[in-house]
C-alpha cells in the first residue's frame, strides 16, 4: 500500500491496476482500486471488472500503479477474488514472451494458460420485473409469452436455459424487447466454477470403540439385519482406514441411503464431509529401482557434464535405448535438491505408461496434467502445483503454464513431435520452445530427448547452442528390428496382394500369432473410406462447409468432415448424374480392421485412433488391454508411433509408406523418416527380436533406405542442404499469415492489399498470397501469405514490430471490414 505521513495524518494514495482480460485486445486495461482494498491488491490476483457496456469478467492484475490512465476514466474494480496470487511474476514473464514471440494478445495467452474453472464467466440471468405477472400478455408473441410463463414457475433463468426452452440460439433480441417493455430485468452475475469434490465419510461413535462395545451394538441390531450388515461392513472396511467412505459401506453391505440415515439418526454412525482429490491413484506409493548399463552410465555422466556449461542438452538415443531411465535418475536428483520437475510428453496416450513408471519412484508427489482432465481436475492440479504439493508434473503441452515454485529441470520427451505445436486457437505456441524459455527464466536445465530429433534441434546441438549426448545402442539384449520392404506394384502384378496386405506381411503376422506374439499395423488415416466417387461422372462427396472430401466412418455409418465436424448419410445415388455406381477410394484404419477380420478370423483386433479413444480413459482402455495381451493386433494411426512400450510386439506392418513421403510440406521427408523410424521402434523391445514390413510403391526411395540403415545423420545432412538452398528453417524463420472471409473475391482482394503492404517493408521476403491445400474451412475462404526471414543480418524483433503495425493499419482500413487475419510464427 502506498501512503505518506504528514504530522499525525496519514493520507492514502489512490491505486490503479493494469489487468489482463481474457480477450484478444492488444493492451492491458486500467481500473481504479477502492481505497479500502489497497492493502489487499497484489500482482497475480484475480479481480472482477466490467468491460464494455454490460459484460463482467475476471481479470489478472498485471501491474499496480498510482498513475491513472491518460485517455479514459478508470472504472472501479468490482471485487477481489483471491487471498493470494494464483499467477506469479515468472508466469507473467512467460506470458509476455509468448505474446511477443507468437504475435498474439496477452489475453489470448491468459485464456490458454488458466484452467477454465479459474476463468470465471459472466452468466446473464433473467428475472421477472415487479408486477409483470399482472401485465396483460395478449399483445406478446408466442416466444415472449413462453419466457414470461417460465419465469412464473422459476424465479430466475439463465440465458442458456432460455436457449434450450425456445430451441434457438439468437435470444438476445427477444430479451431486449421484453426488457424495453419493462417486463424483465437483466443482470450480470459472476459465478465461481471451481468447487472441490466432496465425499462423505462414516465413523463409529466412541461408545463402540472397543470390541465389547461393538459386540453389544451388533446384538442390539438383531431385529434390523440390514443395519447390522452396514455396521459389519464398516468394521471390516475400517481395518484399512479409520474413516470409511459412505459409498464403500453401501456397496459392501448392499444397504440403502435410508439405512445409513437411520444409523446416523440413532447416533451409531458419525458423518464427515470433506474435500478429496479427483485425481486417480494419488495414494499410490511403490518402491522401484533399476541399474544403468554401461552406455546409459556414460550418457548420464555426459548429460551432467554438458549441464555444467549448457542450459539445454539434446539426448539423441535410438528407440528402446533406455532414455526414460535416464530421465528418472535426473528427476530423482533434481527432487532431492528441492527442485520441481516438469516432464512434457507429446500425447495424452503416453501419460498412462510413463505415469505408471514414475509413480514407482515418486508416489503421490507426482502430478498429471492434460486436456482429458475436466475443468475441476485441472484447477485442482493448478492449486497443488501452486502450493508446491507436487515435486514432479507429467503433462502435455499446456503443462508449461503451471505455476511452478522452484523449477529445476524440464524434460521434453519425443521433442520432435508436431503435437507440441498449438495450431488453433491463439496463442499458436510450440511447447518445446516455450519450455526452453520457461527453463531460462527459472534458471532450470532443459533436456530434449528423441530417437529422431527435429532438424532445428539437432542443428542447434551441432552448432554448439545446445549440448549433445548420443545413445546408440538398445537397452538389454534387444536389437534394432529387421526392416523388410515390399513393392506393392510387384506384389499386385504377381497376385500375392490380398486386400491391402502383401503375402510377406500376412505370412509374418500369421507366424507372430502362432508364436503368441503381437502385431502393430500402421495406417496414417482414420475412418473407413477417405473418398466416395461416382464411377460414371467423377462426382466426389464433399463437405458443404469446407473444400475437402468427406470420409466414411463405419462406426457411425456416416460421412464425416475432419475439419469442421459436418456429417451426413453416405450417398447411394450420385446427386450429379443419378448413377448408382459409387466406388470407394482409399482406406483408413476402420477398413484395415474390417479386412483383417476376414483374413485372420481368429485374431483379436483393436484399433487406436481418434475415433476409438474418445472419452477421458479411451487411450488407457485400448493400451492397457493390448499390453495385457487381450488383443493380438493393434491397428492405429500415428498414435502407435509415440513412445509406447509393448514387450510382446514382434511384427510391425506399415501398410502404405508413400502417403507420408509424398505429402506437400517442406518437412515431409523429415517427418516420414521420424514416423517410420518411431513406428519401427515399437518392435523387438525388451528381450524379443522384431521385424518391420514396409509396403510401398517406391521401396528404393531415399527416406525408406535411410530408415532401414538407421541413418539419421544422412537424412539430416541432405535435408539441411536443401533447406539452406530453398530458404527454410533452421536458416530462415517462417511466418504464415492466413486471411479469411466468407466471400472468395473479398478475401483475395484483402490478401493482395496485405501482401503489398508487407512488401513495402520486407520486399522479396514476402511470398503469396496463395490458396492453401484446403482453401475453404467452415465457410471461410483462405489465402495464405508466407514470410521467410533470414536469421543472420536482420533483427527479428523489428520484423515482428513491422508485421504488427502493418496488421493494425490493415484492420483499421474500412475496405477490410469482416476480414479475419491469423498469424502463425514458426508454422510447423
TrEMBL record:
It catalyses: Couples ATP hydrolysis with the unwinding of duplex DNA by translocating in the 3'-5' direction; ATP + H2O = ADP + phosphate + H(+). Zn(2+) 2 binds at residues 543, 546, 561, 564. SUPFAM superfamilies: P-loop containing nucleoside triphosphate hydrolases, Winged helix' DNA-binding domain. Keywords: ATP-binding, DNA replication, DNA-binding, Helicase, Hydrolase, Isomerase, Metal-binding, Nucleotide-binding, Primosome, Zinc. Zn(2+) 1 binds at residues 534, 537, 574, 577. One of its GO terms (molecular function) is DNA binding. Residues 569-723 form the Helicase C-terminal domain. InterPro entries: DEAD/DEAH_box_helicase_dom, Helicase_ATP-bd, Helicase_C-like, P-loop_NTPase, PriA, PriA_3primeBD, PriA_3primeBD_sf, PriA_C. Its EC number is 5.6.2.4. One of its GO terms (cellular component) is primosome complex. Its cofactor is Zn(2+). Residues 304-471 form the Helicase ATP-binding domain. Pfam families: DEAD, Helicase_C, PriA_3primeBD, PriA_C, Zn_ribbon_PriA. It is an enzyme of class 5 (isomerase). One of its GO terms (biological process) is DNA recombination. Binds 2 zinc ions per subunit. NCBIfam families: priA (TIGR00595). PANTHER family: PRIMOSOMAL PROTEIN N (PTHR30580:SF0). Initiates the restart of stalled replication forks, which reloads the replicative helicase on sites other than the origin of replication. Recognizes and binds to abandoned replication forks and remodels them to uncover a helicase loading site. Promotes assembly of the primosome at these replication forks. Component of the replication restart primosome. Belongs to the helicase family. PriA subfamily. HAMAP family: PriA. This is Replication restart protein PriA. The gene is priA.
